[in-house]
Amino acid sequence: MNNIYTGGLVRLSAMDAEESSKAFARWDRDSEFRRLLVSGAADLISQKALQKMVEKDLEEQSNKHHSFSVRKLDDDRLLGIVDLFVHNLTGRDAFIGLGIGEREFWGKGYGTDMLGLILQYAFNEINLKRVSLGVFEYNPRAIRTYEKAGFRHEGRERKSLNKEGKRWDMLFMGILREEWMEQNGIGITN
Amino acid sequence: MRNLFRGELVRITAEEPEARAKAEVFWQMDTEFHRLADSEPAKVKSERKFKKRFEKEAEDGFNSRRYLFAVRTLADDKHIGFFVLIANHVHGEAWVGIGIGEREFWGKGYGTDMMQLCLQYAFTELNMHRVSLGVHDYNPRALRAYEKAGFQMEGYTRMDILREDKRTGGFWMGILRDEWLAIRSGEANE
Description:
Chain A is α+β, with helices and mostly antiparallel strands.
């Protein structure tokens, strides 16, 4: 069996509150990164406060919430995060969120690799029926990555975002278990 | 749609910790009930201790693993028992615990009605793939009720329980989603 935490370029690792909060504090200063990740106003939160938030988050993590630190395989450097939240346990549906804080690794296949790992985790480890995500219209790089991974466009909230005096759509995408299984050549069991 | 919380003879409710403690403190004195329901040694707990436990459980509310209901008769709203589903959403399996503490309601179809509500909740609300249970081999009444509900015999643990100097075993039973759906659609066609 494959190691489900290891991809071609990155691996998923346990989140450490201190390490992650230090990274977030640094990444959040990159306002472009923040805008690609969250729809609200970019805010700056101190490392201490972030650490508390992460600690609390990790403590409360249940069978609904799975979050990982993403590290490069070659030098183990922390480059981003992946988050999976099972918002509908009985319908087996989760929302995912991904971010690469280190911008030198944008556009080089790291996102695709991360996405592959979290989908594998979602479908093969926790047996979800579908995976959902939201992405902003002004993030074409992410949209392409999701399309490439097999996500389909399912809906859009028109002009729900407002950045720099321009209004943008919020896009919703999803991938079904059987679609992912077929793409990956895995027999469909149920 | 059927009412999930109402059967032919009973309805299922959320119970206040106080009411549950009052009932349990009384039920625990019936050691036959205890031995049929549990394999732990009989133990006597105060009403206050029961109440504390139930209050603590109530704080967690309906958590995503444990779905507990109190059972009341439709005729006179008497609190006669309980059932609980311990759900594993990843694999779609739930374990049942079920009991009637008021012994004058044994052997009169109340258990069957409760199990019907329990399976309905597990399969139509929690979307489980299977429901499992264990039963002592010295509890033929329960065994018959489970068989009637559609559970199949899946295994037998030999001599795991020592009761009154007699070694006894236990049966493992299970029912699959498709089996239950077939039984139910058969009933609907009658």
